[in-house]
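Help wanted!
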Amino acid sequence: MTGKVVAALAACVYALRVTGFFFGDALLRGRIRQVIEYLPMAIIAGVLTLTTFSTAGELTLDARAPGMAVAAVAVWLKAPLAVVIVLAATTTALVRTL
Amino acid sequence: MNGGSGDQLTRGELSAYAISVLVAGASTALVMVNLGVGGPVVVAAAVFVMSGTATLAFLGVVDAGGTLTTGFAAALLVAARFGLIGIPLSQRFKGRPLWERLLVAFPVLDAAAAMCFREDDFVAGRRSYIRTARVSYGMWVGGIVLGVLLGSLIPDPRALGMDVAFPALLLATAGTVARKSKRMATTGILAASIAVVTTPFTPAGLPVLLAVLASAIGLWATPEAEVRTS
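Answered by r_m:
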Protein backbone atom coordinates (compact mmCIF):
# COMPACT_ATOMS: atom_id res chain seq x y z
CA MET A 1 0.00 0.00 0.00
CA THR A 2 1.39 3.36 -1.08
CA GLY A 3 0.37 7.01 -0.78
CA LYS A 4 -1.07 6.85 -4.32
CA VAL A 5 -3.28 3.89 -3.41
CA VAL A 6 -4.49 5.75 -0.30
CA ALA A 7 -5.30 8.88 -2.37
CA ALA A 8 -7.24 6.86 -4.96
CA LEU A 9 -9.03 4.88 -2.26
CA ALA A 10 -9.93 8.08 -0.38
CA ALA A 11 -11.37 9.72 -3.53
CA CYS A 12 -13.40 6.65 -4.53
CA VAL A 13 -14.73 5.92 -1.04
CA TYR A 14 -15.83 9.54 -0.58
CA ALA A 15 -17.43 9.46 -4.05
CA LEU A 16 -19.40 6.35 -3.01
CA ARG A 17 -20.53 8.02 0.20
CA VAL A 18 -21.59 11.22 -1.60
CA THR A 19 -23.39 9.30 -4.37
CA GLY A 20 -25.56 7.42 -1.92
CA PHE A 21 -26.13 10.49 0.19
CA PHE A 22 -27.09 12.87 -2.62
CA PHE A 23 -28.55 10.76 -5.40
CA GLY A 24 -29.88 7.78 -3.45
CA ASP A 25 -33.00 9.82 -2.75
CA ALA A 26 -34.19 9.27 -6.34
CA LEU A 27 -34.33 5.53 -5.57
CA LEU A 28 -36.53 6.01 -2.53
CA ARG A 29 -39.89 4.93 -3.92
CA GLY A 30 -42.54 2.57 -2.55
CA ARG A 31 -41.26 -0.82 -1.52
CA ILE A 32 -37.60 0.10 -2.08
CA ARG A 33 -37.99 2.45 0.84
CA GLN A 34 -38.97 -0.47 3.08
CA VAL A 35 -36.02 -2.54 1.86
CA ILE A 36 -33.62 0.32 2.65
CA GLU A 37 -34.71 0.23 6.29
CA TYR A 38 -33.16 -3.25 6.48
CA LEU A 39 -29.97 -2.45 4.53
CA PRO A 40 -27.68 -1.39 7.40
CA MET A 41 -28.46 -4.55 9.38
CA ALA A 42 -27.80 -6.80 6.36
CA ILE A 43 -24.47 -5.09 5.69
CA ILE A 44 -23.29 -5.04 9.29
CA ALA A 45 -24.19 -8.74 9.70
CA GLY A 46 -22.43 -9.65 6.43
CA VAL A 47 -19.24 -7.78 7.31
CA LEU A 48 -19.04 -9.08 10.88
CA THR A 49 -19.57 -12.66 9.68
CA LEU A 50 -16.81 -12.40 7.08
CA THR A 51 -14.36 -10.72 9.44
CA THR A 52 -14.99 -13.65 11.81
CA PHE A 53 -15.15 -16.66 9.50
CA SER A 54 -12.98 -15.71 6.54
CA THR A 55 -9.39 -14.83 5.73
CA ALA A 56 -8.63 -13.20 2.38
CA GLY A 57 -11.78 -14.53 0.71
CA GLU A 58 -11.58 -18.09 2.08
CA LEU A 59 -13.81 -19.57 4.80
CA THR A 60 -11.80 -20.27 7.94
CA LEU A 61 -12.68 -21.48 11.41
CA ASP A 62 -10.09 -20.35 13.93
CA ALA A 63 -9.68 -18.78 17.37
CA ARG A 64 -11.80 -15.78 16.30
CA ALA A 65 -14.96 -17.95 16.41
CA PRO A 66 -14.89 -18.74 20.18
CA GLY A 67 -14.04 -15.08 20.81
CA MET A 68 -17.10 -14.02 18.86
CA ALA A 69 -19.26 -16.65 20.61
CA VAL A 70 -18.32 -15.08 23.95
CA ALA A 71 -18.96 -11.63 22.46
CA ALA A 72 -22.42 -12.80 21.34
CA VAL A 73 -23.28 -13.87 24.90
CA ALA A 74 -22.01 -10.51 26.21
CA VAL A 75 -24.15 -8.65 23.64
CA TRP A 76 -27.12 -10.82 24.61
CA LEU A 77 -26.58 -9.76 28.26
CA LYS A 78 -26.38 -6.10 27.09
CA ALA A 79 -22.77 -5.66 28.19
CA PRO A 80 -21.08 -2.34 27.23
CA LEU A 81 -19.20 -2.26 23.90
CA ALA A 82 -15.73 -2.06 25.48
CA VAL A 83 -16.51 -5.10 27.66
CA VAL A 84 -17.73 -7.02 24.60
CA ILE A 85 -14.50 -6.25 22.74
CA VAL A 86 -12.16 -7.04 25.65
CA LEU A 87 -13.97 -10.36 26.33
CA ALA A 88 -13.80 -11.32 22.65
CA ALA A 89 -10.09 -10.46 22.33
CA THR A 90 -9.19 -12.19 25.61
CA THR A 91 -11.05 -15.37 24.64
CA THR A 92 -9.42 -15.46 21.21
CA ALA A 93 -5.99 -14.84 22.73
CA LEU A 94 -6.51 -17.63 25.31
CA VAL A 95 -7.68 -20.09 22.66
CA ARG A 96 -4.56 -19.28 20.60
CA THR A 97 -2.32 -20.21 23.51
CA LEU A 98 -3.86 -23.72 23.64
CA MET B 1 -42.83 3.08 20.73
CA ASN B 2 -42.19 6.78 20.67
CA GLY B 3 -38.64 8.07 20.51
CA GLY B 4 -38.57 10.49 23.39
CA SER B 5 -35.53 12.16 24.89
CA GLY B 6 -34.98 8.98 26.93
CA ASP B 7 -33.89 7.20 23.75
CA GLN B 8 -31.08 9.65 23.07
CA LEU B 9 -27.47 8.65 23.02
CA THR B 10 -26.08 9.02 26.54
CA ARG B 11 -22.61 10.23 27.45
CA GLY B 12 -21.83 6.82 28.94
CA GLU B 13 -22.77 4.99 25.75
CA LEU B 14 -20.70 7.44 23.72
CA SER B 15 -17.66 6.97 25.98
CA ALA B 16 -17.95 3.19 25.73
CA TYR B 17 -18.25 3.53 21.97
CA ALA B 18 -15.23 5.89 21.88
CA ILE B 19 -13.08 3.35 23.69
CA SER B 20 -14.20 0.59 21.33
CA VAL B 21 -13.36 2.69 18.24
CA LEU B 22 -9.97 3.54 19.77
CA VAL B 23 -9.37 -0.17 20.35
CA ALA B 24 -10.60 -1.03 16.84
CA GLY B 25 -8.38 1.71 15.31
CA ALA B 26 -5.36 0.56 17.29
CA SER B 27 -5.89 -3.08 16.32
CA THR B 28 -6.45 -2.17 12.65
CA ALA B 29 -3.20 -0.17 12.66
CA LEU B 30 -1.37 -3.07 14.30
CA VAL B 31 -2.70 -5.44 11.63
CA MET B 32 -1.67 -3.00 8.86
CA VAL B 33 1.82 -2.45 10.31
CA ASN B 34 2.17 -6.24 10.55
CA LEU B 35 1.32 -6.47 6.83
CA GLY B 36 4.25 -4.19 6.12
CA VAL B 37 2.49 -0.86 5.55
CA GLY B 38 4.51 2.20 6.59
CA GLY B 39 3.33 4.21 9.59
CA PRO B 40 2.63 7.49 7.70
CA VAL B 41 0.59 5.60 5.06
CA VAL B 42 -1.45 3.87 7.78
CA VAL B 43 -2.26 7.26 9.36
CA ALA B 44 -3.03 8.85 5.95
CA ALA B 45 -5.47 6.02 5.20
CA ALA B 46 -7.26 6.63 8.52
CA VAL B 47 -7.47 10.40 7.94
CA PHE B 48 -8.56 10.38 4.29
CA VAL B 49 -10.27 7.04 3.64
CA MET B 50 -11.78 6.56 7.10
CA SER B 51 -12.80 3.00 6.43
CA GLY B 52 -11.02 0.18 8.21
CA THR B 53 -12.95 -2.48 6.30
CA ALA B 54 -12.15 -0.98 2.86
CA THR B 55 -8.49 -0.51 3.76
CA LEU B 56 -8.23 -4.00 5.23
CA ALA B 57 -10.11 -5.51 2.24
CA PHE B 58 -7.47 -3.99 -0.08
CA LEU B 59 -4.60 -5.23 2.07
CA GLY B 60 -6.22 -8.65 2.58
CA VAL B 61 -6.53 -9.29 -1.15
CA VAL B 62 -3.06 -7.93 -1.99
CA ASP B 63 -1.53 -9.91 0.88
CA ALA B 64 -3.22 -13.09 -0.42
CA GLY B 65 -1.52 -12.55 -3.79
CA GLY B 66 -4.14 -10.44 -5.55
CA THR B 67 -3.20 -7.57 -7.86
CA LEU B 68 -3.55 -3.88 -6.98
CA THR B 69 -6.65 -3.81 -9.22
CA THR B 70 -8.40 -6.74 -7.53
CA GLY B 71 -7.47 -5.33 -4.13
CA PHE B 72 -8.95 -1.99 -5.14
CA ALA B 73 -12.10 -3.67 -6.48
CA ALA B 74 -12.53 -5.55 -3.19
CA ALA B 75 -12.10 -2.32 -1.23
CA LEU B 76 -14.70 -0.51 -3.34
CA LEU B 77 -17.12 -3.44 -3.12
CA VAL B 78 -16.77 -3.35 0.64
CA ALA B 79 -17.12 0.45 0.68
CA ALA B 80 -20.21 0.35 -1.56
CA ARG B 81 -22.18 -0.21 1.64
CA PHE B 82 -21.44 3.40 2.62
CA GLY B 83 -23.36 4.53 -0.45
CA LEU B 84 -26.24 2.28 0.58
CA ILE B 85 -26.16 3.47 4.20
CA GLY B 86 -26.15 7.07 2.93
CA ILE B 87 -29.56 6.64 1.30
CA PRO B 88 -31.70 6.36 4.45
CA LEU B 89 -29.27 8.70 6.24
CA SER B 90 -29.75 11.49 3.66
CA GLN B 91 -33.46 11.48 4.54
CA ARG B 92 -32.48 12.64 8.03
CA PHE B 93 -30.47 15.54 6.52
CA LYS B 94 -33.04 16.68 3.95
CA GLY B 95 -33.17 20.48 3.63
CA ARG B 96 -29.86 21.01 5.43
CA PRO B 97 -27.23 23.29 3.77
CA LEU B 98 -25.08 21.76 1.01
CA TRP B 99 -21.80 22.20 2.92
CA GLU B 100 -23.27 20.40 5.90
CA ARG B 101 -24.45 17.49 3.77
CA LEU B 102 -21.08 17.28 1.95
CA LEU B 103 -19.40 17.24 5.35
CA VAL B 104 -21.67 14.65 7.00
CA ALA B 105 -21.37 12.41 3.93
CA PHE B 106 -17.64 11.96 4.66
CA PRO B 107 -17.94 9.95 7.89
CA VAL B 108 -20.86 7.76 6.74
CA LEU B 109 -20.27 4.64 8.84
CA ASP B 110 -22.19 1.58 9.99
CA ALA B 111 -22.09 2.52 13.68
CA ALA B 112 -22.84 6.25 13.29
CA ALA B 113 -25.75 5.46 10.97
CA ALA B 114 -27.05 2.85 13.42
CA MET B 115 -27.00 5.46 16.21
CA CYS B 116 -28.93 7.82 13.91
CA PHE B 117 -31.55 5.21 12.90
CA ARG B 118 -32.09 4.33 16.56
CA GLU B 119 -33.78 7.71 17.00
CA ASP B 120 -37.26 8.07 15.56
CA ASP B 121 -37.00 11.86 15.75
CA PHE B 122 -35.00 13.39 12.85
CA VAL B 123 -33.41 16.21 14.88
CA ALA B 124 -32.32 13.80 17.62
CA GLY B 125 -31.13 11.38 14.93
CA ARG B 126 -28.98 14.05 13.27
CA ARG B 127 -27.49 15.04 16.63
CA SER B 128 -26.72 11.39 17.47
CA TYR B 129 -25.18 10.87 14.05
CA ILE B 130 -22.93 13.95 14.23
CA ARG B 131 -21.83 13.18 17.79
CA THR B 132 -21.09 9.57 16.91
CA ALA B 133 -19.34 10.52 13.65
CA ARG B 134 -17.15 13.08 15.45
CA VAL B 135 -16.19 10.55 18.11
CA SER B 136 -15.66 7.89 15.43
CA TYR B 137 -13.29 10.07 13.41
CA GLY B 138 -11.28 11.42 16.35
CA MET B 139 -10.99 8.07 18.07
CA TRP B 140 -10.35 6.21 14.83
CA VAL B 141 -7.42 8.47 13.88
CA GLY B 142 -6.21 8.51 17.50
CA GLY B 143 -6.44 4.72 17.72
CA ILE B 144 -4.58 4.34 14.43
CA VAL B 145 -1.75 6.60 15.65
CA LEU B 146 -1.68 4.65 18.93
CA GLY B 147 -1.61 1.37 17.01
CA VAL B 148 1.27 2.53 14.81
CA LEU B 149 3.22 3.52 17.94
CA LEU B 150 2.35 0.21 19.66
CA GLY B 151 3.19 -1.67 16.48
CA SER B 152 6.87 -1.48 17.25
CA LEU B 153 6.25 -2.79 20.78
CA ILE B 154 3.76 -5.62 20.11
CA PRO B 155 5.26 -8.17 17.76
CA ASP B 156 2.04 -10.15 17.22
CA PRO B 157 -1.37 -8.46 17.80
CA ARG B 158 -3.09 -11.71 16.86
CA ALA B 159 -1.59 -13.33 19.97
CA LEU B 160 -3.59 -10.78 21.99
CA GLY B 161 -6.74 -11.61 19.99
CA MET B 162 -6.93 -8.05 18.71
CA ASP B 163 -8.19 -9.10 15.29
CA VAL B 164 -11.62 -9.87 16.81
CA ALA B 165 -12.01 -6.31 18.11
CA PHE B 166 -13.53 -5.17 14.81
CA PRO B 167 -16.11 -7.96 14.32
CA ALA B 168 -16.97 -7.77 18.03
CA LEU B 169 -17.64 -4.05 17.63
CA LEU B 170 -19.94 -4.76 14.69
CA LEU B 171 -21.66 -7.57 16.60
CA ALA B 172 -22.49 -5.21 19.46
CA THR B 173 -23.91 -2.71 16.92
CA ALA B 174 -25.92 -5.46 15.22
CA GLY B 175 -27.24 -6.54 18.62
CA THR B 176 -28.59 -3.04 19.26
CA VAL B 177 -30.25 -2.86 15.84
CA ALA B 178 -31.61 -6.43 16.12
CA ARG B 179 -33.56 -5.49 19.24
CA LYS B 180 -35.73 -3.19 17.09
CA SER B 181 -37.83 -6.05 15.72
CA LYS B 182 -37.87 -9.78 15.04
CA ARG B 183 -37.76 -9.11 11.32
CA MET B 184 -34.62 -7.00 11.81
CA ALA B 185 -32.95 -9.87 13.71
CA THR B 186 -33.98 -12.31 10.95
CA THR B 187 -32.41 -9.99 8.35
CA GLY B 188 -29.11 -10.15 10.23
CA ILE B 189 -29.13 -13.95 10.46
CA LEU B 190 -30.08 -14.25 6.78
CA ALA B 191 -27.33 -11.81 5.72
CA ALA B 192 -24.74 -13.70 7.78
CA SER B 193 -25.85 -17.00 6.18
CA ILE B 194 -25.60 -15.55 2.65
CA ALA B 195 -22.10 -14.24 3.39
CA VAL B 196 -20.91 -17.66 4.62
CA VAL B 197 -22.55 -19.67 1.81
CA THR B 198 -21.27 -17.44 -1.02
CA THR B 199 -17.69 -16.91 0.22
CA PRO B 200 -16.22 -20.11 -1.29
CA PHE B 201 -17.64 -19.29 -4.75
CA THR B 202 -17.11 -15.56 -5.11
CA PRO B 203 -14.14 -13.15 -5.09
CA ALA B 204 -13.35 -11.37 -1.83
CA GLY B 205 -15.67 -8.46 -1.20
CA LEU B 206 -18.62 -9.78 -3.21
CA PRO B 207 -20.23 -11.85 -0.38
CA VAL B 208 -20.85 -8.60 1.53
CA LEU B 209 -22.79 -7.17 -1.40
CA LEU B 210 -24.71 -10.43 -1.81
CA ALA B 211 -25.57 -10.34 1.91
CA VAL B 212 -27.33 -7.05 1.16
CA LEU B 213 -30.00 -9.17 -0.59
CA ALA B 214 -31.22 -10.17 2.90
CA SER B 215 -32.71 -6.70 3.17
CA ALA B 216 -35.24 -7.81 0.51
CA ILE B 217 -37.06 -9.11 3.59
CA GLY B 218 -38.31 -5.53 3.75
CA LEU B 219 -40.51 -6.26 0.71
CA TRP B 220 -42.71 -8.37 2.97
CA ALA B 221 -42.65 -5.90 5.81
CA THR B 222 -45.84 -3.97 6.36
CA PRO B 223 -44.96 -0.83 8.32
CA GLU B 224 -48.63 0.18 8.34
CA ALA B 225 -49.56 -3.03 10.17
CA GLU B 226 -46.78 -2.47 12.69
CA VAL B 227 -48.08 1.02 13.37
CA ARG B 228 -51.62 -0.30 13.84
CA THR B 229 -50.60 -2.91 16.41
CA SER B 230 -48.55 -0.48 18.50
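OP: Thanks! One thing I noticed: Confidence is low (pLDDT under 50) at residues 1-7, 224-230 of chain B.
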